Amino acid sequence: MRLLNLPLIAVLAVLVSGCYSGPVNINDDTTAAELVQRAQEASDRNRNKLALEYYREILARFPDDIDMVCTAEYEIAFIHYKQRKYDIAREEFNALLERYNTQDEVLLPPQYKRLATIVLERMAEKSK
Predict the structure, then answer these.
(1) Which CATH code is given to the segment(s) 26-126?
(2) Which of 64, 71, 109, 118 is deepest in the core (most CB within 10 A)?
(3) Which residue, among 124, 33, 106, 115, has the nearest Cα to 77 in the 3D structure?
């Protein structure tokens, strides 16, 4: 009986170790687009912690690329929304929307304003 459990234990150990993700190592020459792609792939696999690391790396490395900043800020807020961390998500969506309350709004990607507004409306409906 114990010999039969040994392969099962080995398989479980491999699966559990595969779920562990320490700090992600990102090459210095990785582009913002590549980071977004990796973050989206991680998010699609419900590896939200890893996705957040990639999006935060975009904010750190590309603070002057407003399209990428808006993308990262929206996606970070949306991950928190999916995790039901509504207070955090609400703050992050509102901070993103503040960017659009300036004369530079025309320079910002319009889709994130609309998407953030939609999610905030959903959150308001759920809290009623």
Answers:
(1) 1.25.40.10
(2) 71
(3) 115
